[in-house]
Amino acid sequence: MSTGWIVLGVIVVLALFAFSAYNRLVALSQRVGQAFADIDVQLKQRHDLIPNLVETVKGYASHERGTLDDVIKARNSAMSAQGPAQVSAAENQLSGALGRLIALSEAYPDLKANANFQQLASELSDLENKIAASRRFFNSAVQEYNTGIQQLPAALFAGMFGFTKKDFFDLGASRTEVEAVPQVKF
After folding, report:
1. Can you give the pTM of this predicted structure?
2. What is the CATH number of the domain that holds 127?
3. Does residue 173 form part of some domain?
4. For residue 172, is pLDDT > 60?
5. Contact 34, 140 (CB under 8 A)
6. Does residue 81 belong to any structural domain of this protein?
7. What contacts 24+ positions apart, CB below 8 Å, involve 56-65?
8. Per the CB 3.0–4.6 Å rule, which of 23, 35, 43, 99 could disulfide with 182?
9. What is the pLDDT of residues 12-60, one digit of tens each?
10. Residue 48 zone, left/alpha/beta (φ > 0; ψ -120 to 50; rest)
11. What is the pLDDT of residues 96-152, one digit of tens each?
C-alpha cells in the first residue's frame, strides 16, 4: 500500500512539473509574440512614412530615380516579409536604402531646408529609435524563451509540447552595411 502512495506521489509531482513547465513556456512564447508585434507596429509606421518622404525628395531630386526606386522596392519587400528572419533581412535592406535617401539631402540644400523634409526625417529618426528599442525587447524575450526551453525541468517537456528555439531579430552579416556611412555619387 505504501509503495502505491509513493508511486502516485511521484506521478503527481511529475505532472505538476510538466504543467508548471508548460505554463511557463506558453507565457514566454506569448511574450515573444507580443514583442514581435511591437516591432511590427513600428515597422508599419515606418512603411507608411516612406512614400511621403520619397515624394518630398522627388520634388527636389527627381533625377535620383535609382535611389528613389531602391527605397520603394525595399519598402515593398519589407512589407511582404514574414517571420523574424525575413523581416530582419528585408528591414536591413530598407534601412540601407533610407540611409542613401537621407544622404541626398546633403547634396540638395533646398531639400535639406524644406520644412516638410525636416519633419519627415525627424519622424523617421524617432521611428528608427523606437524600432531599435523594440528589437532589443524582442531579442530579450527570445533569449529568455530559448533559455527557458533549455533549462531543467522544462527541457524534459519542451520538445514534447512542441516548443522550439526561436530566432533573434538581428542585423546579422549586414551589420557593417547598415552601420556604414552611405556613399552618394553623382
Report:
1. 0.76
2. 1.20.1440.20
3. no
4. no
5. no
6. yes
7. 56/111, 56/114, 56/116, 56/117, 56/120, 57/101, 57/104, 57/105, 57/111, 57/117, 60/108, 60/110, 60/111, 60/114, 60/117, 61/104, 61/107, 61/108, 61/111, 64/104
8. 99
9. 998 888 888 899 999 999 999 999 999 999 999 999 999 988 888 887 7
10. alpha
11. 888 888 887 777 777 777 888 888 888 998 998 999 999 999 999 999 999 999 988
Which grid cell is 43? 515597422
- Give residues with Cβ within 8 angstroms of 56, minimum separation 6: 111, 114, 116, 117, 120
Closest CA to 38 of 164, 142, 155, 158: 142
Q: Which amino acid is at 26?
A: V
C-alpha cell at 51: 512614400
Question: What is the count of structural domains for the chain?
Answer: 1
Query: Which residue range is the domain that position 13 belongs to?
Result: 1-162
Half-sphere exposure of 53 (CA within 13 A, CB side): 30
Any long-range contacts for 110-115 (C-beta under 8 Å, 24+ apart)? Answer: 110/60, 111/56, 111/57, 111/60, 111/61, 114/56, 114/60
Per-residue pLDDT, 55: 86
